[in-house]
Amino acid sequence: FFDEAELAGFHSWLDVGAGNGELLKAVQQAEPRINATGLETNEMKIKGAAKHGLTVVNRDLGGIRERYDVVSFMNVLSHVACPIGFYRALARLLVADGCLFMCTGNAADLEDPDQNPSKSYSLPDHVVFGGLRHSVQLMEQA
């Protein structure tokens, strides 16, 4: 998702909703000099990340004073009560010209409404939460 030159320019990375730290591990393997930290509310996942030598903590976004070159989140928006406020909080954590790296389900942009998996009750909501258009609108409002 980033080339070597881009990664080499990053010094700090915050992954929100880090889970067991899979993304943090990949980041640190690709560029060990990056100071990568994760936020997670699930204590079992925090302990799992610690077993792999990863820094994952349970902290509130509003209490963080540090600034990061990269703030990431993957499949978190469906768990957020106020997406606009969430984007505002993330923007506050970025250094000037920092990078917001996100991943979320994108079934909302399917052209054929009959292909939209939201019609199936067997799929989790974060698979269909939103697409590029929705994400851009939320960021613009933030």
TrEMBL record:
The source's superkingdom equals Eukaryota
In terms of InterPro entries, this protein maps to: SAM-dependent_MTases_sf
Q: Which Gene3D superfamilies match?
A: Vaccinia Virus protein VP39 (3.40.50.150)
According to the record, the signal peptide region is none
Name this polypeptide is given: Methyltransferase domain-containing protein
Q: Organism, per UniProt?
A: Eutreptiella gymnastica
**What are the leading ranks of the lineage?**
Eukaryota, Discoba, Euglenozoa, Euglenida, Spirocuta
